[in-house]
Design brief:
Blueprint: H1 2-27, E1 36-40, H2 46-54, E2 59-62, H3 65-77, E3 83-86, H4 95-101, E4 104-108, H5 111-123, E5 128-133, H6 147-158, E6 165-171, H7 180-200, E7 208-210, H8 217-222, E8 227-230, H9 232-235
Parallel strand pairs: 1-2, 1-8, 2-3, 3-4, 4-5, 5-6, 6-7
């Protein structure tokens, strides 16, 4: 009975969020289906992921590699095939496991991390999608802080230095504030940078914009997000002690 109630809760929440995304696409004159939903399952058990999959969700995001590996190995042992994005700050010593379990790493914030991703992917003959994390908000947030530093890395990508890596987009986190104009500025900054990169590095096909979470994804969609990352509004409050 308790499992059924949790499933119904996750299903209802997913339907509500997906309908909100559709409404935002319509109001922003965006093509329907142009925004993908990453269900952020960090600090929630594997059962919650299975409930979400039963409700039609297949794309998930996790911050901590060790937790994600245990959880999604279990989910795949159940015969499921979820898609997983690593969305949190990634340490180099966790890259080997990250590239094993994920299809995309959204939080590439430095050259050394990109080099390690290439190294580990080459070992298992896997090509992985990556997004570059861009600092557009709080001082505490990670990410490339200038277009100049990012461009140095993009030049290496365009030169073919990372054959097992597919740079596909940019990611950011808005500042933790109630000021909607500051949040909007964070998202528009990312979009403008993406648009400039598409002109300057057309061979890289950097199109995705991963931005917006439970509290601000409607603004992100208005500003061009192609991926929104929503956790609490789907799975409820996280159990950080679990």
């Amino acid at each position: 009975m308790e499992n059924q109630l949790e499933f119904e809760s996750v299903k209802t929440n997913l339907e509500r969020i997906k309908n909100q995304i559709l409404d935002c696409e319509k109001s922003s004159n965006r093509p329907l289906g142009s925004v993908k939903l990453v269900a952020v399952s960090k600090f929630h058990p594997a059962e919650s992921v299975l409930f979400a999959m039963d409700a039609g969700q297949n794309l998930f995001g996790e911050n901590r590699v060790q937790e994600a590996a245990k959880k999604f190995d279990f989910v795949r042992e159940q015969g499921r095939s979820p898609e997983l994005h690593i969305i949190g700050q990634l340490q180099r010593n966790k890259v080997k496991e990250a590239v094993r379990i994920a299809s995309c790493i959204e939080s590439v914030d430095r050259l050394e991390l990109l080099q390690e991703i290439e190294k580990q992917c080459a070992k298992i003959e896997k090509t992985i999608q990556i997004f570059f994390e861009i600092h557009t908000g709080e001082e505490s947030k990670s990410g490339f802080e200038s277009a100049e530093s990012l461009y140095e890395v993009l030049k290496k990508c365009a030169a073919g230095e990372f054959p097992h890596v597919n740079p596909a987009g940019l990611m950011t986190m808005a500042p933790n504030t109630d000021d909607k104009e500051l949040i909007r500025k964070s998202f528009s900054t990312l979009r403008n940078l993406r648009d400039k990169i598409r002109v300057d590095f057309p061979s890289l096909c950097i199109n995705e914009l991963s931005m917006g979470m439970s509290g601000d994804f409607p603004i992100a969609i208005e500003e061009g997000a192609t991926i929104v990352r929503v956790g609490t509004a789907i799975f409820g409050q996280r159990n950080y002690d679990a």
